[in-house]
Each structure stands twice: as structure tokens, then as C-alpha cells.
């Protein structure tokens, strides 16, 4: 089976037919499935969508159980946690629904960890890190676009000269470079390439 456009988070099952891994959707399995919007809802109280998955959390006064349900807890109600709590050896601890969140100074609310600025996120050289609440993702650098080549998804250079997205002067030549472009005034003209006289 060959899939001309590839299956980013899935496998090719027939001519251009992808079977997506759990948590992903779309013709090429490149879109995150928002499980929180599914019927029936996967969580009893609150749901947080994550890349390829989801996390359940409980309202204040409830405790998240191993099966994802929420149990009423007098001790949790007293602590007043933003995203529910757990009891460990008689100690009540507030929870954060994602590894990209950490407990704030008050020990009750969760604050975002910027993985891009802390260096926790690792993106390949031609991708840049974009922080999101509770997570991050890697996006192609400016001047590159995501394309399916050689059996996988890669960030490939955009040829601004061909796509006509350059700002070269009418009397200048466009020269494509990796991730960018240059403008050079034609013979008989002088200037920066953006302005030629």
C-alpha cells in the first residue's frame, strides 16, 4: 500500500488510505483529535485536550480516581485545588493535569511551564518551538513549510522566487536561499534589489 501524502501519525492501509493512531484524525492523520469533544465525554468532570491524548481532572472538592472518575473528598474540598487533588499517605496534594503545568506558589493553582524558554523542549534544527498552555509543539522555521518527502514529513525550503512571495524590485532578479531569498538588481540598474534605479 502506498500513501502519496503519507500518514503522519498513522499507517498506510491501502492506496492513499491511512489508519490513524489513537488520538489523531484527518486524511493523513496529521490532526490532533479533540477527545474532550467526543460523545460520550471521556471524563466525568473536566477534560483537557493534549497532543494525541487527553487528561481528566476533577472539580474542587473531588479527587481523581485511577479509572478517571471523580470521588467526593472532604479533605480535597478543604484544600481548594484548581484541578482536583490526590491523597498520599494522609497528605493532600493538588494536581496539575499536564506535565507542562506546575503548581503555583499558592500550591493550589497550576501555572504554565514555558518549555521553549527553559530548554525542556527539543526541536530539530529547521523547526522552532511554540509554547502552548500545558505543552508545546515544533513548527517549521520561517521560510520553510511542512511537506511529505522521502517517506516522511520534513520542513523544506520555500522557494519564494517560484511562489512569488518575494518583494524584489521589478528590475531585480530573485535568488532563492535556504529559508529565505535575495534580490539583485539587473544589469544596468543599481540598488538594494528591493529598490533599483
Describe this structure in words.
By secondary structure, the protein is mostly beta strands. The chain has a domain at 10-72: Ribbon (Laminin). The protein is built from three helices and 18 strands. The chain has helices at residues 74-79, 115-118, 160-163, and strands spanning 10-14, 17-20, 24-25, 31-32, 46-50, 53-57, 62-64, 70-72, 85-88, 91-94, 101-103, 110-112, 127-132, 135-140, 144-149, 152-157, 172-177, 180-185. Strands 1-2 form a two-stranded antiparallel ribbon. The chain has a two-stranded antiparallel ribbon with strand order 3-4. The longest helix is centred in the middle third of the chain and has 6 residues, at 74-79. It starts with 9 loop residues before the first strand and ends in a 12-residue tail after the last strand. The model has no long low-confidence stretch (mean pLDDT 86).
Q: Helix fraction?
A: under 10%
Q: Specify the overall morphology.
A: elongated
Might you state the CATH topology name of the domain at 10-72? Laminin
> Total strand count, please?
18
Taking all Cα atoms into account, the compactness measure Rg is 25 Å
Q: Helix tally?
A: 3
Category from helices, strands and their pairing: mainly beta
Report the mean per-residue pLDDT as an integer. Answer: 86
What is the topology, as strand order, of the major beta sheet? Answer: 1-2
CATH class of the domain at 10-72: Mainly Beta
SSE order: EEEEEEEEHEEEEHEEEEHEE
Low-confidence stretches: none
Q: What profile does the largest beta sheet have?
A: 2 strands, antiparallel
Mind telling me which CATH architecture of the domain at 10-72 this is?
A: Ribbon
Beta-strand level of the residues, as a percent range? 35-45%
Q: What is the end-to-end distance?
A: 56 Å
InterPro entries: EGF, EGF-like_Ca-bd_dom, EGF-type_Asp/Asn_hydroxyl_site, EGF_Ca-bd_CS, Growth_fac_rcpt_cys_sf, Nephronectin_domain, NOTCH1_EGF-like
Main location: secreted
Family: Belongs to the nephronectin family.
Domain EGF-like: 32-71, 112-150, 157-195
Amino acid at each position: 500500500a502506498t500513501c502519496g501524502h503519507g500518514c503522519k501519525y498513522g499507517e498506510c492501509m491501502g492506496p492513499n488510505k491511512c489508519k490513524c493512531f489513537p488520538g489523531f484524525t484527518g486524511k493523513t492523520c496529521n490532526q490532533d483529535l479533540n477527545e474532550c469533544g467526543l460523545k460520550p465525554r471521556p471524563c466525568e468532570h473536566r477534560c483537557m485536550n493534549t497532543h494525541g491524548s487527553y487528561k481528566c481532572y476533577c472539580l474542587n472538592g473531588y479527587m481523581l480516581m485511577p479509572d478517571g472518575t471523580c470521588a467526593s473528598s472532604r479533605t480535597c474540598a478543604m484544600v481548594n485545588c484548581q484541578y482536583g487533588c490526590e491523597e498520599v499517605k494522609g497528605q493532600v496534594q493538588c494536581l496539575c493535569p499536564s506535565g507542562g503545568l506546575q503548581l503555583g506558589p499558592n500550591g493550589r493553582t497550576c501555572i504554565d511551564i514555558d518549555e521553549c524558554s527553559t530548554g525542556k523542549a527539543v526541536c530539530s534544527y529547521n523547526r522552532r518551538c511554540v509554547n502552548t498552555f500545558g505543552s508545546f509543539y515544533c513548527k517549521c522555521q520561517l521560510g520553510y513549510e511542512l511537506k511529505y518527502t522521502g517517506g516522511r514529513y520534513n520542513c523544506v525550503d520555500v522557494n519564494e522566487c517560484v511562489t512569488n512571495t518575494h518583494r524584489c524590485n521589478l528590475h531585480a532578479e530573485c535568488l532563492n536561499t535556504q529559508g529565505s531569498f535575495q534580490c539583485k538588481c539587473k544589469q544596468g540598474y543599481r540598488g538594494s534589489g528591493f529598490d533599483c534605479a
